[in-house]
From TrEMBL:
Residues 33-584 form the WASH complex subunit 4 N-terminal domain. Residues 1121-1135 have a biased composition (Basic and acidic residues). Residues 1137-1156 have a biased composition (Polar residues). GO terms for biological process: endosomal transport; endosome organization. Residues 586-929 form the WASH complex subunit 7 central domain. It holds the Pfam family WASH-7_C. This is WASH complex subunit 4. Residues 1121-1156 are annotated as: Disordered. Residues 947-1116 form the WASH complex subunit 7 C-terminal domain. InterPro entries: WASH-4_N, WASH-7_C, WASH-7_central, WASH7. GO terms for cellular component: endosome; WASH complex.
Length: 1156
């Protein structure tokens, strides 16, 4: 319409250029993108949380709890409203009394019983005076209990007065209140420690009374306090609470209430007791039993009360009550408190007990033991049957909770859910009764339990907790179902009441009684037309106690109605009922079973997951402990309990598991040793891997992760043992790998300096015992490795660069210089012996003789030193004498030179190991040429002083590593430089003959080497060796020190050796050709052996020549001392113009410093 009113002048503005549409599309597109993005986020969250997150609740992680119990916000006066004023008053009075009883019962269970049960506790480690202090803290609790008991007495009197005035069916509530008093009596009776400490406290009070000033207490306050204590003792501690209650004066003529003389009331009372008893007895021991045992205790209490009021005994009922003891020998009232009905009835009604014959009284006592024995024998069978029942119930629960509800079968589905919930509570009650009764009977009768019984009872505890866990897991669905089920049950009850109501209305004969019945039915209807609170349900039961009179309901209608109301009670308090029935707080008093249980779990690891249920049961003790009054704070009690359980758990499961896993890994890694028979068919097999698939167990404020505990234990053990024996690192690495494969244990690497299995010695050990090392180890020049000469075991130790590098990494690079210093000290001692040998007249004269001979005959011998001359020298030395083990002086001299060479080889290895270590340490630096200065960078950023200091240290470490890895110290140059001047000095002229002793030494060495190698093929390998390059290193080093490379080379010794052997081999070949025709086999064999021997000798000389040539390279054997000095001078002259101030010798001085 608005468009039509626009004037033609404005039509121009209505031109559509399409911009609005484009803008709309852009916004729509953005919105679509947002929705897609949001949907994908939600999908991600859903996937991460798992689809069942809303249905299944974890029992150990319980941040939110659902409280299903509805609370009544209206008062009783508002709820009880009918047109029948008298009925309103009556129902209100009884409802108020019944509510009061329920409150008192709740209060005693949650507060007084728990505090009483955990009252003053006996502790052997308690210091003197602590018991009195605990008792002092406990007195305030006893005062509160005294007030509570007085209140109970008043309620009992009021109830009896109301019942005497107007007969009603609230006897069960009266019975419940009497059971409360009986429970308190039993707690006090069973608390021996409390009585003991009470006496000690009274004694303390007497000493205070004699000297009040010492304790700073006014005397006038002591008297009232003593009176209070006497009153508390008489009222509570003598176990006469119930007795005092039933012996009260119930008649009150002043108010016009007569009780004891009221015969109608007496009949009504007795009739109600019989009715309740009949209902209770029929259900005892049946599968549908739920709270009949408590009611039975209530009936016994009512019977005693009836006797004390009216002084009459129904012998038939008394006998019937005692006969129930065959079925129910004991009733657990709370925790570990057991009530024996036979003892109670005999003590409280002595008049009736006299009537019973002695035989039947004695049979009652023996019956208890027989019953316990019978229970113990039936335990395995009970466990088996309940195991089947509970597991099938759990399956039904899971299936019915997970399937969707169909609208057409909604009513049937709710009924089946209701039945399953009720069945769960019934199973829980049955199992709980067996456990409590059996355990507490064993305890009260002080009979030992067999291991089989303990295991069976622990299985039942697990089943009990599994029922609770099942309800908890499905909390959300259960909560949803409970509301619907209560509505359905209320509608069924309303339908039944409506039928009865019609029947009452249809009858035209109105009387006052009929009007009362009708009003009661209307009240019941009103109560059911609301939430199923305990007040409304109480009103329904009270209203129906009136409404069921005058045959308003047929028998076939009344039983289903009672069943519906019973179900309504159970479903409305479902969570509370499950919690009470599955509560295992009593286990605190039976902690002794826990070690046996853990041993059983360890032995049957397949179903290790059940341990969660047991810990859940042990956690049930905590809420009751919070009420402990005798300690300063209840935390002390909780801590000691926590500590005790954890110690047992560690001892009987965790530690055993750790040891077993470690043993298994060790035996698996060392299978080659064949330690013992591990055949699973003979010794059995335990799969302990099941323990590692368990979720962490919650206990107190911690989670016990078995997998993490064992992993930590193995990590710690392997680390410590690797530290002690670093050479075992490979074994422990293998065990770590096996732990991962077999048990899924993610273990941490030790990150210790790795050592290899063959490493025998550490650098420190070698350094300290270098004289032993060079004599016991043989050097291999090419592989740069040391091999042990002999060993007592089957293995020879070897030492190579990697071992040295690991040692340097362990001890630090500083050890390298120390090692070279030790080597220098060692060489000094060896060179002293060397000098003495060369100075010996026999040796010196022979050498001078040989030098003269060579100079005179070198032209005839083609400048070569004759081989025969060297052999002659070797033999001549043997004539001078030999050691007891057959060694000549020349052999010992050869060994000395080998040891010097070994020391030099070790120095070379130290240098290589240092370079290896530095290069592995510096490998993380990306570019050695361009290393940033961290200190400057840190200063630029303005970081703290500590950070700057750390950066400075890092820079210095990096510069050290870079310089070390780039250069490496010239240790050989240092060791030559330090000894050479002394060797070449005039006073050591006798050493200059050394080059002439080298040929005989080589002959000696070759003979020794061939002998060692031949021993390798013999059975007795004593003295066998395949390498000894220490000799070549030693000869090269000493020749360098004496600057005699040219003199030695002038002998052309190795050429002479080669020619000598080639000449002999050619002669043998010619001889073989000549003898080939003679066909003399023995001669041919001899010639072959000769040729082979010559080959071996020549090969050994060649090897020695190569080794010596290699060794000479280390000492720059290509230059003489004069040439080296000339080269040094040339360098100095070249560096002169480069100096800043023209001062010569700058580089030479630095070079000298290095040499020093």
């Amino acid at each position: 319409m608005a468009v039509e009113t626009i004037t033609p002048d404005w039509e121009f503005d209505r031109f559509d250029d399409g911009s609005t549409k484009i803008h709309t599309e852009v916004q729509l597109k953005n919105y679509v993108n947002f929705l897609e993005d949001y949907t994908s986020q939600l999908k991600g969250i859903e996937d991460a949380l798992d689809e069942s997150i809303g249905d299944v609740w974890d029992f150990t992680l319980d941040p939110i709890a659902l409280k299903l119990l509805p609370y009544e916000q209206s008062s009783l006066l508002e709820l009880i409203k009918t047109e029948n004023k008298v009925l309103n008053k009556v129902i209100t009075v009884y409802a108020a009394l019944c509510s009061e009883v329920k409150k008192l019962k709740y209060e005693v269970r949650t507060t007084f019983c728990n505090s009483g049960v955990f009252g003053v506790q006996k502790d052997t480690s308690m210091v003197e005076g602590e018991s009195q202090i605990q008792m002092g803290r406990f007195i305030s609790f006893l005062q509160e209990l005294s007030c509570f008991v007085s209140r109970c007495f008043e309620v009992v009197v009021n109830l009896v007065h109301q019942l005497a005035s107007l007969y009603s069916s609230i006897y069960e509530h009266l019975g419940e209140l009497l059971v409360v008093l009986m429970t308190l009596d039993e707690i006090m009776e069973n608390h021996g420690t409390l009585k003991e400490h009470w006496k000690m406290y009274k004694r303390l009070l007497k000493s205070v009374h004699h000297n009040p000033s010492k304790f700073e207490i006014p005397e006038e306050k002591l008297k009232p306090f003593e009176k209070l204590l006497l009153k508390l003792e008489g009222q509570l501690l003598d176990g006469m609470i119930f007795q005092a209650c039933v012996e009260q004066r119930f008649d009150n003529p002043g108010e016009g209430v007569t009780v004891s003389k009221n015969s109608t009331f007496a009949e009504e009372f007795a009739h109600n007791i019989r009715t309740i008893f009949t209902n209770v007895e029929s259900k005892l021991g049946e599968p549908s039993e739920i709270d009949q045992r408590d009611k039975y205790a209530g009936v016994c209490g009512l019977f005693v009360l009836h006797f004390h009021i009216f002084r009459t005994v129904d012998k038939k009922l008394y006998k019937a009550l005692l006969d129930v003891c065959k079925k129910v020998p004991a009733v657990t009232l709370i925790a570990n408190i057991v009530w024996f009905p036979d003892t109670f009835l005999v003590n409280k009604v002595p008049a009736a007990a006299k009537v019973m014959d002695r035989k039947s009284m004695q049979s009652l006592r023996s019956m208890r033991e027989a019953s316990l024995q019978q229970r113990a024998q039936a335990l395995p069978k009970d466990v088996q049957s309940y195991y089947v029942f509970v597991t099938s119930w759990m399956m039904k629960m899971e299936s019915i909770m997970s399937k969707e509800q169909k609208s057409d079968k909604f009513s049937e589905d709710l009924s089946s859910r209701c039945n399953i919930f009720v069945q769960g509570i019934l199973y829980a009650y049955g199992i709980s009764t067996i456990i409590k009764t059996t355990m507490n009977l064993y305890m009260s009768m002080q009979k030992p339990m067999t291991k089989a019984s303990v295991k069976s009872l622990c299985r039942l505890v697990e089943l009990l907790k599994s029922i609770e866990h099942t309800f908890h897991r499905r909390s959300a669905v259960v909560a949803d179902s409970v509301a619907h089920i209560t509505h359905q049950l209320q509608s069924q009850a309303l339908a039944a009441i409506a039928t009865a109501k019609k029947r009452v209305i249809s009858d035209k004969k109105y009387s006052e009684q009929r009007l009362d019945v009708l009003s009661a039915l209307v009240l019941a209807e009103n109560a059911l037309n609301g939430p199923s609170t305990k007040e409304r349900r109480l009103m329904v039961s009270l209203a129906l106690s009136v409404g069921t009179q005058m045959k308003t309901f047929k028998d076939e209608e009344l039983l289903p109605l009672q069943l519906v109301l019973k179900k309504l009670d159970l479903i409305s308090e479902l969570r509370e009922r499950v919690k009470v029935q599955c509560d295992c707080g009593f286990l605190y008093w039976h902690r002794a079973v826990f070690p046996i249980y853990l041993d059983d779990v360890y032995d049957h690891a397949v179903d290790a997951a059940r341990i969660h249920y047991m810990f859940s049961a042990l956690r049930d003790c905590v809420p009751t402990m919070l009420h402990a009054k005798h300690l300063e704070t209840c935390d002390q009690l909780l801590e000691s309990y926590d500590k005790e359980i954890m110690e047992v758990f560690n001892e009987h499961l965790l530690d055993k598991l750790c040891k077993e896993i470690e043993k298994d890994l060790r035996l698996s890694v060392h299978t080659h040793l064949k330690l013992d028979d591990r055949n699973p068919f003979k010794v059995g097999m335990k799969d302990l891997a099941h323990f590692f698939s368990l979720k962490p167990i919650r206990f107190f404020n911690r989670f016990i992760d078995i997998k993490a505990y064992v992993t930590h234990y193995l990590d710690k053990t392997f680390y410590n043992l690797t530290t002690v024996a670093l050479h075992d690192w490979a074994t422990y690495s293998e065990m770590r790998s096996l732990a991962m494969q077999r048990y899924g244990l993610m273990m941490t690497e030790a990150h210790l300096p790795s050592q290899t299995l063959e490493q025998g010695l550490d650098v420190l050990e070698i350094m300290r015992n270098i004289h032993v090392f060079v004599s016991r180890y043989l050097y291999n020049l090419n592989n740069q490795i040391f091999i042990e000469r002999t060993s007592n075991n089957k293995h020879l130790n070897t030492i190579n660069i990697r071992h040295i590098a690991n040692s340097i990494r362990t001890h630090g690079t500083g050890i390298m210089n120390t090692t070279v210093n030790f080597t220098y000290q060692f060489l000094r001692k060896k060179f002293y012996i060397f000098s003495q040998f060369m100075y010996d007249e026999h040796i010196k004269s022979r050498l001078i003789k040989d030098i003269r001979f060579f100079r005179e005959t070198k032209d005839q011998t083609d400048q070569k030193y004759p081989f025969e001359r060297a052999e002659k020298f070797n033999r001549g030395i043997r004539k001078l004498g030999i050691t007891p083990d057959g060694q000549s002086y020349l052999d010992q001299f050869r060994q000395l030179i080998s040891q010097i060479g070994n020391a030099m080889g070790y120095v070379r290895m130290i240098r290589s190991g240092g370079l290896h270590c530095c290069s592995s340490a510096i490998r993380f630096v990306p570019d050695l040429e361009d290393i940033v200065n961290f200190e400057e960078l840190v200063k630029e950023e303005g970081l703290s002083e500590e950070t700057q200091k750390a950066a400075r240290v890092l820079d210095s470490v990096l510069s050290d590593l870079t310089s070390n890895s780039a250069e490496g110290t010239e240790y050989f140059k240092m060791l030559v430089g330090v000894f050479a001047p002394e060797f070449r000095s005039v006073k050591n002229m006798h050493l200059r003959n050394f080059y002439m002793i080298v040929p005989p030494l080589t002959v000696n060495f070759v003979e020794h080497s061939i002998g060692c190698k031949e021993k390798l093929n013999k059975k007795n390998k004593g003295g066998a060796a395949f390498t000894d390059d220490g000799f070549a290193m030693g000869v090269a080093y000493i020749l360098k020190l004496l600057d005699q490379y040219q003199e030695f080379d002038s002998l052309h010794w190795f050429q002479a050796v080669r020619e000598k052997y080639m000449k002999e081999m050619n002669a043998v070949v010619k001889e073989q050709n000549v003898q080939a025709t003679s066909q003399d086999e023995k001669l041919m064999q001899t010639m072959n052996l000769t040729q082979k021997r010559l080959d071996v000798y020549l090969q050994e000389f060649e090897l020695l020549y190569f080794s010596l040539s290699s060794a000479r390279i280390f000492f720059r054997a290509d230059k003489t001392a004069a040439e080296e000095n000339q080269e040094k001078k040339d360098k100095e002259e070249a560096s002169r113009p480069a100096t800043s101030n023209g001062t010569p010798g700058g580089s030479a001085s630095s070079s000298d410093t290095t040499t020093k």
